[in-house]
Amino acid sequence: MPEMPQVQALVDFLDARLVHRVTPDGEALEGGAHVTGVSLGSFAVLKTAVPPLDAIAGAEITGVARYGKYIDLDCDGVHLVFHLARAGWLRWLTNPPVRPLRPGKSPVALRLEVDGASDGGVGFELTEAGTKKALAVYVVDDPMDVHGLATLGPEALTLSEADFSTLLGGHRGQIKGLLRDQSTIAGIGNAYSDEILHAAKLSPFAIAAKLPESEVDRLYTAMHTTLDAAIAASAGKPAAELKDSKRSSMAVHGRTGETCPVCGDTVREVSFADSSLQYCPTCQTGGKPLADRRTSKFLK
What we know:
The chain is of the alpha+beta class. 26% of the residues lie in helices and 20% in strands.
């Protein structure tokens, strides 16, 4: 799942090509690229009916913004908002599509074609792998009309340490869940919550409200250093390289059975119905493996 660092990199990638356009000689171009066509490969991906999807056809793209893990394209006052969910991605098009989209016949959920991209590209496609479809697209007059976006908590990197401590103090659940809860802190998902907790040397099952001040300080610092490093690593990369960049930077997430780069212990996993988490017992749980059951804290 793309998380805040990769989504921000996608926003910067699109902004440079569609809004703040520059010629190869470094000369700024006036205005933004224009939408020449938009089509659906999956009718289910579009979650709104008014304005219609074709309301953005012909519009100038005047802005690209990020809200948590949502991307917002301002198409001359009408907003195309999308959330890539777990298996979605953005594929930049360097050549005109050979054939029109046929709903249900490919992994492409939406295609946006443009004229005037600064690198000569012709737009992008939103794709989604797998059978569980969750990618969502909205066409709205105001981004805040998207419920999930409007209910986002504060951005992870804008929280002061005092506000972060207050959030934790009011949360009786496990710290892993709090970090992933978009209505509490926006932008962090399954992967970076694993990485932050590993950097902070905290168990994912630790209860947020019971963390001592020293561990809250450590967690806050780890959140910033982990996300800052991921943003820096993603910056400037083309969309096609961001997935591999994310995977290669992970210390524990997605590395079950591999060696922890900090202590040399074996990275372990806890599996749930539709997800899993990874952690290092030596770094995070005093050497004790966590039970592979949501309701248990430790194997006895």
